[in-house]
Amino acid sequence: MLKVNINKIILARAEARMTVRELSRVSKLAVSTINKIENGYAKPNPVTIGKLAKALNVEVEQIIDIEK
Known about the structure:
This protein has a single domain (2-66), classed as 434 Repressor (Amino-terminal Domain). It is globular. It is mainly α. 54% of the residues lie in helices and 9% in strands.
């Protein structure tokens, strides 16, 4: 099972020097969606995780944890 790692997303965004608004523009996700994910109020589906990874220029595996 895939589980998004909030800290890894925040770190990847910081390393990319992107604001939430910039990530929103590049990923085509709403600012509110990104805020909810980063604050733990929303669990992104696999498509959303893929959009975030692509926009952050990282592999999906870098922003998720795999639960067994």
